[in-house]
Acyl-CoA synthetase (AMP-forming)/AMP-acid ligase II (Sphingobium wenxiniae), 505 residues
Amino acid sequence: MTDFSECLRAAIHATPERPVMEFKGRVFTAGELATYGDALIAMIEAAGVPEDAAIGIILRNRPIHAAVVQGLVAMRRPITTIYSMQSAQAIAADLDASRFAVVVADQEDWSEPVAAAARRNNTVAIALDLGAESAVELVGEPVETISADYRRIVPEPGIEILSSGTTGTPKRILFPYRMLIRAVESITYGRGSETLSADIVTLPFTGIGGMCGVVAQPLVARYSALLEKFNVPEFVDAARRLRPTLLSGPPTIPRMLMDANVAPEDLSSVRYWYGGGSPFPPELQDEFEERYGIRTIWAYGATEFCGTVISWTIDLDREYRQAKRGAVGKALPGVELRVVDVQTHTVLTPGKAGYLEALIPAIRPDWIRTTDIVEIDVDGFVWHHGRGDGAILRGGFKILPEKVAEALLVHPAVLDACVVGLADRRLGEVPAAAVMLRDNALSVTEPMLIEHVRTLLPANHVPARICILPELPRTTSLKIDLSAVRYRIELEMGAENDAPAVNSA
């Protein structure tokens, strides 16, 4: 595949009559989706938009949004993604700061503050609306002259994707289109014929996982049921009707399916659950498999890698499942991995923990360092031990939040858990946790959970506070939002408290 955009363009228009996607009861053919993308391209060209201009898209998980992204990539038009899950004022501020030549958004996102920002910046404003006579149309008066200082993506076209924002403000990372072949490789690697079964799409298009799925879909020719946002009833309905053999998503979804007591027969066609984004504790994997007979195939990736770099495969699962229990898999073909010391950055031998580095020639020629703590064994299997930059230093003792969260997840009443560090006047930092309980476990209290952790971990690992929340705050990619969790815990503690009062030993 020498030119990704050219191959995508051919795939989009290859079989126009083929049904490719369903959304809220409506089925879309490849030809329908291609028409939306073609209409947008024609509108951009008619407006005289320069080829290096970044096209800002306020993305939602809707078929027409997938269609215009595919159309833009196929024609090598640069894209910058914009979160729709923010206020109109925040979107307007982004438009003012970025000065896009073109902004594409759903009709409902063209609020007055956003439209005013487009007018201020001489931006070509385009609305998407499947309910309108013309699904792709200009907003307001045509722009006569595009501002000279519009946002450019040079020297080659690509897509700017927002990072997950689990530890702070999301940042935009640029991927040239030539790198998007990794999106297809990430989705198809190690799955064999299972790749061809129907899919249920839940990942948001604004993240790397969702975007990989959008651009790969025409090339892998996989029929998809698109969910605007994950919810159990719609997901289960699609699973019953489409009978997929392989599904994917973060561990949040299996947790929610089990907590909702979804009947095993509703998922009886599913043989494998392929996921990543955050750790899937082995105990939860066992519970999921025991209840539904679904094997979990886990992976590790990041926005910086343009997809997955480490993964289990179906064949690896058959051979090593018990022997390598808890690992996130092995390096994908074409990817080299190593572990370096956290302080000295010297390369470590197998079995020693440190920062993960990856060499991915398709992305860049040098090693890419992460702050993820891993170890790699002599067989090349990788164990993920959390984020080095998230370590909590409690009186000089380093605590990995993931280790404390894992202990909380062992408790039968806990559905999900997150641990963050809070400033402490005496100890520097202390761990604090937020948990979401299972529906039938509302009588569980904070002291009970603290005592539970105390029985499993050293005293300095026991959280100073454990806040029980109705649900954990999440980013658009369903990862737990650490900044929001910290804020919620601090609210629970009371703004007047300088330091936690519980278990500060």
Observations:
- The CA atoms of residues 59 and 228 lie 11 Å apart.
